[in-house]
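A reminder from the course coordinator: this example appears on the midterm review sheet, so study it carefully.

Given structure:
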């Protein structure tokens, strides 16, 4: 086997890798500082479509992480980029928050419930029966169905919450139409992120806490992958999957020595 090429760029999931339940994971600040000081390209990826990059930057600053807004890539941004490429200046009915609606406005989309080109399902903490009913009827009427990510649940201080994948299943059950999921594990999101970094998959590493999204997405995009055990997937879960990460570490702190010294 040929020696792997030197790593020139990094990608990382956010929740479970850098922060957990709103608190900094020890070592994440040092990892980001090393990347920034060395000028190494990096991007934080998240399937969370609720917040804009500026919102997420502010939230991360409050945990002690200084990450520029332009180094954050969300499933909402990936979804907007996909729709802008497929049907420029189209229209959409959106179930979601500011992260999703802002991303669509920025590509020139019109948000409407009147014969939209797409029904776009994103993350929200206030799914309403009325909005889901409207989405069902629009999909039945011919609107294309797109969702930001397939995650069935999301974390909260009180336990799991239903997430985009669960609500998408409800709409699919009612309509017989499956959505196109743009976010992880779709390698489309990873390819778009690589293009944003102007990086090559052979020399980029993806760090994540989930085998079923982060690791498989990085693998299918041709990247090396690192699983950290500070989030969803535990060490005993790894062998249940037919694929493996390139490396398993306890936390992101174990990767600091892989970066250029300060």
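Designed residues:
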């Amino acid at each position: 086997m040929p020696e792997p090429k030197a790593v020139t760029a990094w990608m990382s999931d956010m929740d479970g890798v850098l922060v957990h339940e709103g608190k900094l994971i020890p070592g994440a600040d040092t990892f980001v500082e090393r990347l920034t000081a060395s000028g190494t390209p990096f991007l934080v990826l998240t399937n969370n479509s609720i917040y804009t990059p500026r919102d997420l930057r502010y939230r991360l600053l409050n945990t002690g992480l200084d990450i520029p807004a332009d180094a954050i890539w969300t499933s909402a941004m990936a979804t907007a980029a996909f729709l802008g490429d497929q049907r420029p200046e189209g229209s959409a009915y959106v179930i979601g928050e500011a992260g999703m609606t802002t991303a669509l406005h920025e590509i020139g989309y019109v948000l409407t419930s009147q014969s939209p080109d797409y029904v776009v399902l994103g993350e929200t903490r206030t799914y309403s029966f009325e909005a889901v009913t409207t989405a069902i009827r629009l999909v039945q009427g011919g609107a294309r169905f797109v969702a930001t990510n397939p995650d069935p649940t999301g974390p909260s201080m009180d336990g799991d919450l239903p997430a985009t994948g669960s609500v998408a299943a409800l709409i699919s059950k009612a309509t017989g139409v499956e959505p196109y999921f743009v976010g992880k594990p779709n390698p489309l999101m990873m390819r778009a992120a690589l293009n944003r970094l102007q990086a090559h998959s052979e020399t980029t590493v993806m760090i994540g806490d989930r085998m079923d999204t982060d690791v498989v997405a990085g693998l299918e995009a041709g990247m090396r992958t690192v699983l950290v055990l500070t989030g969803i997937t535990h060490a005993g879960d790894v062998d249940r999957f037919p694929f493996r990460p390139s490396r398993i570490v306890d936390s992101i702190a174990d990767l600091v020595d892989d970066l250029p010294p300060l």
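The longest helix spans residues 75-86. The two ends are 32 Å apart (CA to CA).
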